[in-house]
Prior knowledge:
The complex is a heterodimer of chains A (634) and B (374).
Chain A: H1 2-42, H2 44-55, E1 56-61, E2 68-69, E3 75-87, H3 95-106, H4 110-122, E4 129-135, H5 137-145, E5 153-162, H6 170-173, E6 176-177, H7 181-186, H8 188-193, E7 200-201, H9 204-208, H10 210-213, E8 218-224, E9 230-237, E10 245-246, H11 251-260, E11 266-272, E12 278-284, H12 298-305, H13 315-318, H14 328-337, E13 347-349, E14 352-355, E15 358-361, E16 369-371, H15 373-379, H16 382-392, H17 394-403, H18 426-433, H19 439-446, H20 456-467, H21 486-499, H22 509-524, E17 543-549, H23 556-561, E18 575-582, E19 589-595, H24 601-604, H25 606-625
Parallel strand pairs in A: 2-10
Antiparallel strand pairs in A: 1-8, 2-3, 3-4, 3-5, 6-7, 8-9, 11-12, 11-19, 13-16, 14-15, 17-18, 18-19
Helix pairs in contact in A: 11-25, 14-16, 14-17, 14-22, 15-22, 16-19
Chain B: H1 2-9, H2 13-19, H3 22-42, H4 49-70, H5 73-97, E1 99-101, E2 104-110, E3 113-115, H6 117-135, H7 144-162, H8 167-184, H9 188-208, H10 211-221, H11 232-244, H12 255-258, H13 270-303, H14 307-331, H15 349-367
Antiparallel strand pairs in B: 1-2, 2-3
Helix pairs in contact in B: 3-4, 3-13, 4-15, 5-6, 5-7, 6-7, 6-8, 6-14, 6-15, 7-8, 8-14, 11-13, 13-14, 13-15, 14-15
Amino acid sequence: MIKSNSGIRKTDVINRRMFIIGAAKIVVFVGIIARLFSLQINENKKYLTLSDKNRIREWKLPPTRGNIVDYFGNTIAGNLKVYQLHIIPEQVENFNYLLLRLKNLLDLSEKKIAKINKLKSKLKPWDSIIVSENLTWSQFVKINNYLYDLVGVKPVMTISRNYPFKEMYTHVLGYVSQPNEQEILANETVQERFVPGMKIGKLGLEKRLENYLIGTNAIQRYEVNAYGKRINQLEHQKGEQGSKIRLTVDTKVQKACAELLKDKAGSISVMDVFTGDIIAMYSSPSYDPNLFLFGISQDEWQLIRNNPLKPLINKTLSGLYSPGSTIKPIVALSALENNVIDTKFKVKCTGKMELYGQTFHCWKEKGHGWVSLKNAMKQSCDTYFYEVSRLLGVDRLNITAEKFGLGKKVLGEYFENEKKGLFPNTKWKKNNLGRGWVLGETLITGIGQGYIQSTPLQLCMMTAQIANGGYKIKPKIIVDNRPLSLEEAKKSMQDEQLHDSDKKLFKNKKNIKIVQEAIFSSTNERFGTSYRSRIDNPKYQFAGKTGTAQVKRISKRERELDLELEQIPYKDRDHALYVAYGPYINPRYALSIIVEHGGSGSKAAAPIAKKLFKLIIDRHELRNKQSNFEEISI
Amino acid sequence: MYQKDRLNNEITIFQKIKNLDYTLIVSVILLSIVSLFVMYSTDGGEILFHTKNHFIKLAVFFPLMIIVAFFNIKFWHNLSYIIYLIVILLLIWVSFFGIKSSGSQRWMDVYLFVLQPSELMKVAIILCLAKYYHRLKIENVNSFTSIIFVLSIISIPIIFVISQPDLGTSILIALSGLIILWLGGVKVKYFIYSFITFLISLPFIISFLKPYQKLRILTFLDPDRDPLGAGYQIIQSKIAIGSGGLDGKGFLKGTQSYLDFLPEKHTDFIFTLFSEEFGFIGSVGLLILYSIIIFRIVRIGSISRSNFARLFCFGYAFAIFIYIFVNLSMVLGLLPIVGSPLPIMSYGGSSMLATMIGFGIVLSAKINHKQIIA
Lengths: 634, 374
């Protein structure tokens, strides 16, 4: 019984202690339920968001670039469907076999194969490897035919930049290509929208207008697992194509320029003398921007880079040339404005001029005899302009020249490679070369040689501003928002010029007229330097001034030899220049032509203007009708 | 008295079936069905490896539970020490020849599944100590020798388990053993003193922990410290449970588990998946089901005539409670991550085997609740 007593006592202890534990259990379970409540009910929203953040991932697709069109709406930089070949490694059964098959089908090089293998080891197995960025249609068809045997291969259709006019607009548009890291970091918009395989503007307007052209990314939302593998697509958000940009250029004229400069190094610019619209701007030779889209081959690159005619340089904007005689209208204008000369002022040309023991030669050895302004301009008499600039002085000449845009950028911020050139004065020489100005330097500046340097586009603008009656214009290459036809634009511009004294580049309107007439005679009167290139029909009649820029100082011996162009080495031949505007009555367009090492302006450059003017003026009617301007946000 | 003994010994098979505790059995069956559905969900809505194996284990161990129940409680009483010794031997065997996996050596291959003897020890220690306190005179409960003896009984398996290493299971074994000490009547002040000693020596103990165990504790204290590394499990588990909301994301629609964000979703984190798909309502329902099981076991203990059965039932009920508590606290971010399965729900043969044997003995106690053990 003792035992059973002890047994009962023990049972009591066990039961009592069990009761305590039971109470503790209830407390703990209530605590757990409270915790569940706080997580699942109170903080449900927070954890739902976190769970969505876990499972939903966004994939950005490359945006579609905006088109660039010419004045008439022709696409000059567009987008093209391209066929690509991707491999998704995780779907491939036998990678080496697949590569072997592709190698045979597409003629892949060993280097390419090695590159693919390297990419494969770097990427996640579900990331696609781009084997070929640009398959030809026949390759694409071939791949599709053998698709049953190529497990893990994905033929993809995508969009790529395309320049249908190839090398014609390269120096205006630039090109797009795959950016490097610095280029991505340099532009915030690019940084934000960049996806691998995307191309950005590397040069020209493509680069400058990147933020307008780029477009927005299409976004695909996928449900992903913990390892980042896509499980299924949730939605597709379409991206917006970049802005369409309309340029002032006329492809017809641009094309003609390209043909006229074929196999030559040089530049042609054509400008509307009232609106400042650039009708054409071609630098020769050029190169095909399409080559850069999928990575240029080493051979092709070397070919472009080593071309002695220097296709990579945009000669219109960054080529610096002595203007030669094309500066003479400005010298004449400056002298007239400063009352240094009048139309009756005459100089006797003996073929040379002596100054402090130095001899300054006229291009015509025998001399022109007594010449007035008109005759001097017509025959481009150097002696006359030596004398005029001696009387005028370089500082007064510099003021007029800078008014007309020399020594300043023409398009300003649009092209980062544009050069501003140089029009010297005494102060400039003192500050930059540390020596005083010498009178002899004034003389050679007066015929556009010496320190003076200008771009072809500057010469074009200078001519345009003489042509429009001496008013300042702002050249542009992008069509602005003003929905006016050309004639209406001209009218409003002329109204503006009457009221806005800032735009007036002259003191006396008569002086401009005198210079215009002098230029006219140079082309349209007997003995004029470009007389042979004239057009008699008043509709197309133009006025122009030739120029020949010396590349090298002519030695006495050479002067005596008087060599033919072909006998001089290419590098030493003079640059041929021509500036002109037309039609002479009611001027509308100005142009500048430069043919590098082309010899004399009258022989090499002026004939090009003759061929071009008819086309330019014929296009005016069409251009004037073209007024369906769209709203463009630039 | 003699006659009563004889009567109990001669319970027929029909009476045994009649005397089974059907509340407990139905609850266990319900739990098994739920666990199968959850396992089906972890397999991504297909009957794959885990679902199949879980079903096979249920199909083998559930009848085993009934078989265990049909043996007289006295039989289990007599076998208690031997069972304890066998499991100790298995632990020793495992520590020499066990299968190694991810840095620990806890398993042995027994054809049907891989056996983890430490899981069996969770039940064996209760059996062993229940028998010991059943036989011990109440006057001797607080004697020095008996306490030292009992502590050694607990320490021996723990030494083996902790060296595997397996901190989670050793804590559970220790708690299962200590509860019998408590129920057996060891003085409250001893518990208080040893708890204080434990707290004081805690820094010392921590210095003995493996780096990964220390990391787990640090991570528990601040899961955002290293969200992609050690804190990942806790954070993802909380996200899964929290995003479940009131009524859950729906069966087979738990994105966290479906998309592999949940770690160990078949085993220790099975509740996370359940809670994500069935929400607060489902989770509370599951807790109620577990509470019914625990309550039934306590009830069976309290109607048992023998103190052995009583001690075993109370101890086992507490053990089940502790498993649930540790597991849920872990996935809810209330405790550091220590490997501990959720009874029946988690995938794993040894845990289920031990749990079913435990239930079997409880059922045996119910059938023979009038049995007096000398």
